[in-house]
Write a structure and sequence with these properties.
Layout lengths: L1 H18 L3 H18 L4 E8 L5 E4 L5 E2 L5 H13 L8 E3 L20 E3 H10 L3 H11 L1 H10 L14 H5 L5 E2 L1 H12 L6 H12 L18 E8 L2 E8 L6 E8 L9 H15 L12
Antiparallel strand pairs: 1-2, 1-9, 3-6, 4-5, 7-8, 8-9
Helix pairs in contact: 2-10, 3-4, 3-5, 3-6, 3-9, 4-5
C-alpha cells in the first residue's frame, strides 16, 4: 500500500510538472525543432544564434562552432577603425593612398581604378561595407593591424573572433590562417553595437548606420523577411562558406542574428539562410502577442 501511494504521488508530481510547462516554452521548443529540421536538410554544417534585443531570449544551434567568416569579418575590422579613431591615433577624415600591395581581386571597385586613389579612412570604411571592397579592407587591416583587431575582440569577450589574413590571400588560407568567429560571438557583437556599448553610443550608432547602407539584395537573411523590415547586416561568402551577421528591426522587438555555413557543396540548398531567417522572424513575431496568443501586430 505504501509503495502504491508513493507511486501515485510521483505520478501527480510528474503531471503537475508537465502542466506547468507554459505555452511559450512549447512554442520555443517547436521553433527549435523546426530550425533543426531546416538545418538537418542540408548536408553542410550550419550554425545559428539569435538574440531578442528586448527580452534577451536566445535561440542557438551549433552556436559555439568556429566558422570561417569571409566578408562578415569586416564588421570587427570596422569596429577597430572606429576604436583607434576614438583614441586619436588618426581621424576618420584623414586621407590615405591606395597602395599596390593592398589591391586584390574579388568584390569591390578599387581594383578597377586606373588613376591614383586617395580616399578618407571613412570612405574606405564605406567601400569595405557597402561594396564589400577587398582592397579597401586590406588598406584598413594594414592601418589598424590584425593584432589590434584581435586584442580588441579578446578584451570584449570574443576570443574566437579573429582576423588572421588579408582578403584574397590564398597562401595564408592554405596555411589555415582564416578569419574566424562563431554564431554566438557574432550575434553578441551585434547586440553590443545595438546597445551602444562599443566605445560609446555615438560610435556604435555610426557603425550600425554604415551596416544599414548595405544593399538589401546582398542579404540572404532578407530573403526570409517581409520587404518592409529593415536590416543592419554584413554577409560573407567564399568557396564552401556563407555567413551573415545582422540586426533585424522587427517593430519594437529587434533581434540580433548570425547564421553560418561551411563545407558547402553543390548539394547544399541555396536557401538555408533565408529559411532559417523566416522561421526565426516568425517566432519572434509570435512573441508580440498576449499570454493567450492573440497577435498584436508587427
Amino acid at each position: 500500500m505504501k509503495k502504491a501511494l508513493l507511486l501515485i504521488g510521483f505520478c501527480i508530481i510528474q503531471m503537475t510538472a508537465f502542466a506547468q510547462v507554459s505555452a511559450r516554452e512549447i512554442l520555443k521548443q517547436k521553433t527549435e525543432n523546426d530550425l533543426k529540421e531546416i538545418i538537418g536538410s542540408s548536408p553542410s554544417l550550419t550554425g545559428l544564434m539569435a538574440i531578442d534585443l528586448t527580452s534577451g531570449e536566445i535561440i542557438g544551434i551549433n552556436s559555439d562552432i568556429v566558422f570561417t567568416q569571409a566578408s562578415a569579418i569586416k564588421i570587427p575590422i570596422l569596429m577597430e577603425v572606429y576604436k583607434q579613431a576614438h583614441e586619436k591615433k588618426f581621424a576618420l577624415s584623414d586621407i590615405k593612398p591606395l597602395v599596390a600591395s593592398n589591391i586584390v581581386a574579388g568584390s569591390g571597385i578599387l581594383n578597377a581604378m586606373t588613376d591614383p586613389v586617395n580616399l578618407s579612412i571613412r570612405n574606405y570604411c564605406m567601400l569595405m561595407i557597402g561594396l564589400s571592397d577587398n582592397s579597401a579592407t586590406n588598406t584598413l587591416i594594414e592601418l589598424v593591424g590584425m593584432k589590434n583587431i584581435n586584442s580588441t575582440m579578446q578584451s570584449l569577450g570574443f576570443p574566437n573572433t579573429k582576423v588572421q589574413r588579408k582578403m584574397i590571400d590564398q597562401p595564408a588560407s592554405l596555411r589555415n590562417e582564416e578569419n574566424l568567429s562563431t554564431p554566438a560571438e557574432a550575434a553578441r557583437i551585434m547586440k553590443l553595437l545595438h546597445e551602444g556599448k562599443f566605445i560609446d553610443k555615438t560610435s556604435s550608432e555610426e557603425i550600425l548606420s554604415i551596416l544599414k547602407k548595405n544593399p538589401i539584395e546582398n542579404s540572404k537573411l532578407a530573403g526570409g523577411l517581409p520587404s518592409n523590415v529593415k536590416l543592419a547586416f554584413k554577409p560573407g561568402g567564399m568557396g564552401g562558406v556563407s555567413t551573415e551577421w545582422g540586426i533585424v528591426y522587427l517593430s519594437n522587438s529587434p533581434y540580433a542574428i548570425a547564421v553560418m555555413e561551411n563545407y558547402k557543396t553543390s548539394a547544399t540548398p541555396s536557401d538555408i539562410i533565408a529559411a532559417i531567417s523566416k522561421r526565426v522572424f516568425d517566432y519572434f513575431s509570435m512573441l508580440k502577442a498576449t499570454k493567450y496568443g492573440v497577435l498584436l501586430g508587427n
